Amino acid sequence: MVVNEFPQITEWLFGSANNPSAIYIFFLLILAATLFGLFFGYLVAAFRHGPTEAFYVVAKVVSGAGPDWLKLSPRRTFAIAKLAAKEAIRRRVILIVFAIFALALLFGGWFITGAENPERVYINFVMFGTQMLILMMVMLISAFSLPEDIKNRTIYTITTKPVRASEIVVGRILGFAGLGTGLLILMGIISLLFVWRGLEHRHQIATNENNEYEFVEVDRNETGRRASDDAILETRTTQDSGHTHFVEVLRDVRDKDAPKPVNMDAVIREIPAGDKTIYERLEIESVGGHTHKISVEVDSDGTEDLAELLKKAKFDISSARGFFRARVPQYAEKLVFYDREGNAKSRGISTGDQWAYRGYISGGITLSRAEYYFDGIEEGLFDTSDKLPLELTLGVYRSKTGDIYKQIRVGLQFESVNEGEDATGDRYVSEQLEFESEEFSVQVKAIPRTLPGQKFSASGELLENGNFDLFEDFAKNGRLKLTIRCLDQDQYLGMAKADIYFRATDKPYWWNFFKGYVGIWLQMMIVTCLGVAFSTFLSSPVVMLAVICTIIFGFFSEWLQKLASFTIEGGGPIESFVRLITQENTSRPLPEGIVRNIMTSIDSVFINMVGAVTQVVPDFSRLDFSDFLTYGYFVDNDRLLVAVFISLAFCLGLTILGYFCLKTRELAA
Asked: Which end of the chain is more exposed for a tag (fewer CB within 10 A), N or C?
């Protein structure tokens, strides 16, 4: 998952140097919509009543809107909402949608079992299914309600009573939204139980034909698997939920009085062996983003052979751990790349990849590196006192093949930041930590709080060699610099600003799950308002088509904006079609000439129209938090508040649009 930078809610509302003010844009859109509405209303009135009379008609409608809204009756509004809900229930759309949802959950588990990342598949399945079913339901009930009442003339029973157009529009929106909210709550609870039940599983240690545990020496030549460096024995678990785990035995021989090694994911037992004690740790290999806690009880019986001891051991494997995460990443505020000569660059070395998301640094003895500058690194953000989890998603580009089973080596180095007002005088530089990269997968590195390194004075004089505290020394002012290097010659590491972060204390998963469904609820509210507003002046089939087109434009708004800005290679639709037929490379310009000029002109007109549409349709991608739940990231409050403001603005505008369209419509026609 690519996590884009997101401004704070105040910065989004009031603007900054890099972001325009959302309030300013909102009022500009309101002004533009008002002027367009007045102009269009005058044209319609002029067609019906003549140019002169049209001024009085428009003025009468506009002047009466204020008192009409101020006199809106809650009692009549909720009565209409109740009536709209009853009509929708009688159409049985809700029952059909819930039946489809229930059937999908009943049989969906058959196809999810055995997935490489079951948590992602389960979450994506329930989120996408719920989203599509809810949006489809509110679209159907809102699109057919008012046009059918007008067609069947049942609307007369309401309009002949002292009911205002504002009460009809708001009442129907509240009625349909209430039904959708109730169904969404029910589907959310069932979905959470479905995901929890589907991911819950346990394993046992596999046995041989003699019903004995069999631990064998680690086979480091086995392809597709990388055993731990200090693993000496291994075995497998039984298969459950479509997968098995490797169980590795890591042994460390020490004196009796030596402290035991610490491992939070294993229970350590002692095995007496002469005048020494064998400390063994059992670790279960992570599969699909989860692992298990394992404990073992061993009766030595005078045997020193570890494999023989483990044949008679008692193992206890816990349920899955690592699912249901709501990670809170602490991202760097700045990323600086350095080329081979050590010159600072805003972007990394290009390796020819068309996706320019990641920049690359070269390996070996060059000065190429990447520096991450963190701010706000404080002890209270983390739930562990001795180690800090650092998560990395690194890309790898190999300029030479070498050993295909050997990963690229990475070097990490921490340094205090002493710049400007944050200068603390002394400067701390840690020794370089080395590890092997895992390409395009999240690696979790536990950074010790106490790091060996050097202490320098402000003038650069070496003051001390020793062990220094990560919070009290390196990040004393909350700022910390992390330097990434590629240690293998002629190889490249790729990274972006969001690829490396410190993982703060996780948030409650149920709260994150709730926020994900709030995003679906906000989408549902906009679709409901779209259906009601469009149904005041369009027929039911046209309403459905308009709502579907709006949803499609909303979900692909970001891609369409890139198309409108000509940042997608291959040009517009006409040029892309010609390239497809002629099999022309997208990165190669077409020959100059009149044909190219005609294609470019047509594409320009079309793309400008698409760009204009993307500015007025709701951006549903900002209301969709399913990726955050799928990949286990916490939905921060700023994103949620921005989504709420966007939804509120569109719902308000669509409600006003529906009011004016219904107010000026001749229902008796």
From this structure: C
